[in-house]
Design brief:
The structure holds two protein chains of two kinds. By secondary structure, chain A is mainly α. Chain A contains 15 helices and two strands. Classes of the chains: A mainly alpha, B mainly alpha. At the A-B interface, helix 1, helix 4, helix 5, helix 6 and helix 8 of A face helix 1, helix 2, helix 4, helix 5 and helix 6 of B.
């Protein structure tokens, strides 16, 4: 190869390397989003030709079913974040301290729930939270003098089941994220703090937490993402997208049942665009705080 | 001082052990129940008391015989889809991630921002238009239809970019001096260095593919084409008499992904550490 050709290749190569993403982005991301946006402005049932309808579909979203779905998703997301952001950090810090015997085995054990399919895990949670008085969870709450519950028959207890389900599944993953972040915290900081007489809790609060802040924000982001896109868990618990009284409805199950069960593509698309707008607003706020593109320059 | 350390060791190990046991509890209960008639669990829920009366391996034999071995078909479908999706996904995402990390070029920052945006938008929002797209190219009920929209995974690109950024640029320079082309450098020099990242990403992509439910449920229509999660889910119909193979089938469905995890777990945490966000 001549020298000029090689220099030329250095200039062209990055575009070839990144071309698969560009092609993918146009066909399977931008096009579907534009198509969803357009459909959300149309009256379309089934594969009949769409009729432009302006914002009518967004008006139709004001029904109680959608409100219920948004509320459920928001409450579920709030509580999963409340648990799944701080708690795994705490456990990761314990695992990372030299006090735990067999830490490697425990790390693998804690990660295993993430490997299971939602269907299999759903089977467990559905029947552990069975309304039968002798079933697992009713036996456990019975120890505290709480009468047996029909867990999946009421809204509040359904939230509890879903949050427990999600925490069980993702705890290990977040621990792994935090563990890898903890490797980057310099030991000197802890030693200096020990000399100054800081307690373990003070060290955790004033050294660990600030040092892993980017990972905390990352975990928060994926938890919000996971929370608002939750559907499969509710689907396996109730074995349908539509649940009695809509107690298990989520934003995505609303999209699914409007789109695929009733062929109301217009309304389903409007719900999709609403969710998209919400997610983007949250993430723009997050990106502007953390600025991953700018920071990675150095 | 020494006593304090022993106390802390016991306490810390105990706390972690409790959570590890809770993490594995569902497997234990489902495994025990998989030897009993399935209708028992459907009726009574999972319970603490174990009666070893109706125990037997019959539920596992059913997996081979029921409906002409439909379970085996689901298994093969799942494996084929996972292998294709993970193999191609690893290749493309490492290619793009490396390109973003190791080259200065116009539009690099914008491309990376787009990767972040794709990562942040739940794919569930796009299921309707993706369905229409796949339908219009007649790929409903095919492997290709399931795989196609996920061949260039953004999480993988992000991860490989982070990982490749930490690799020494001198290797690329010396490769060029030795007369290696740009793609030769990637395939012969950089790919081996990125092995820990491939290990970690194999686990994450395989998990996603093996357990994915919503999209395959939309694309795969006939029972013969379905994957394990949706096939098993379909056994849960209120009128079904297939409850017996539900639990044994669920237990057996964990085996491949568990093997992948155990084979890669050494590189997993190391790879995650190098590739994850460091801010």
């Amino acid at each position: 190869m001549t020298k000029e050709r090689k220099l030329h290749m250095v200039k062209v190569a990055p575009y070839i390397f990144t071309a698969p993403f560009v092609i993918y982005f146009l066909i399977f991301f931008i096009y579907p989003i534009i198509s969803t946006f357009w459909t959300s402005l149309c009256q379309q049932v089934g594969f009949a030709p769409p009729k432009f309808a302006g914002l009518a579909n967004y008006g139709l979203l004001m029904d109680p079913y959608f409100k219920m779905a948004v509320q459920n998703s928001a409450i579920y997301t709030f509580f999963t974040c409340l648990i799944l952001v701080p708690f795994p950090l705490f456990l990761a810090a314990i695992l990372d301290s030299k006090f735990v015997k067999g830490a490697d085995v425990f790390k693998s054990m804690l990660f295993i729930p993430a490997l299971t399919s939602v269907v299999m895990a759903g089977l467990f949670f559905k029947y552990a939270f069975s309304s039968n008085p002798a079933a697992l969870m009713n036996a456990v709450v019975g120890l505290f003098g709480i009468p047996p519950q029909g867990w999946l028959e009421k809204r509040v207890t359904t939230w509890i089941v879903l949050v427990v389900f999600c925490v069980w599944k993702w705890l290990g993953v977040n621990i792994v994220y935090y563990l890898s972040a903890l490797q980057t915290v310099s030991n000197d900081l802890y030693e200096a703090a020990t000399i100054d007489g800081a307690s373990s809790w003070q060290k955790f609060l004033h050294i660990t937490v600030p040092c892993v802040k980017p990972t905390i924000i990352y975990v928060l982001t994926i938890s919000i993402y996971g929370g608002f896109s939750m559907f499969a868990e509710a689907y396996t618990l109730f074995n349908s997208a539509r649940t009695p009284g809509d107690i298990g409805a989520t934003i995505v199950s609303y999209i699914y049942s409007q789109g695929f069960n009733r062929n109301n593509f217009g309304i389903a698309s409007a719900a999709g665009i609403t969710l998209l707008a919400g997610v983007l607003i949250i993430n723009i706020i997050q990106l502007s705080i953390t600025d991953p593109v700018g920071k990675k320059e150095k | 001082m020494k006593n304090k350390n022993i106390g802390l060791t016991i306490l810390a190990t105990l706390v972690i052990a409790v959570f590890a046991v809770i993490a594995l509890m569902p497997f234990f209960f489902l495994f025990i129940s998989s030897f009993k008639p399935g209708s028992e669990m459907i009726r009574n829920g999972l319970q603490f008391k174990f009666d070893f009366e109706n125990y037997g391996l019959g539920n596992y034999a059913l997996l081979l015989t029921e409906r002409d071995g439909i379970y085996i078909k689901w298994y093969i479908n799942s494996i084929v889809i996972m292998v294709l999706q993970v193999g191609v996904g690893l290749f493309f995402s490492s290619l793009v991630g490396y390109g973003l990390a190791k080259y200065e070029f116009k539009g690099r920052n914008i491309l990376f921002l787009l990767v972040l945006i794709v990562m942040m938008v739940p794919v569930e929002i796009l299921i309707l238009p993706l369905y229409k797209e796949i339908n219009s190219i007649n790929m409903i009920d095919t492997y290709a239809g399931v795989i196609l929209p996920f061949l260039v995974p953004a999480t993988g690109i992000f991860f490989f970019r982070q990982f490749a950024s930490g690799l020494p640029t001198e290797i690329i320079e010396s490769g060029r001096v030795d007369g290696c082309g740009e793609f030769g450098i990637f395939f012969r020099l950089m790919m081996p260095l990125m092995l820990p990242a491939y290990g970690a990403m194999t686990i994450l992509l395989a998990m996603g593919s093996w357990n994915s439910m919503v999209w395959p449920m939309i694309v795969l229509r006939t029972s013969e084409m379905q994957t394990l999660p949706i096939g098993l889910q379909s056994l849960l119909t209120p009128y079904g008499n297939n409850y017996d193979m539900l639990l044994s089938g669920a237990v057996m469905s964990v085996v491949p992904i568990m093997i992948i995890f155990l084979l890669n777990q050494k590189t997993f945490i190391a790879g995650m550490a190098a590739g994850s966000v460091k801010g």
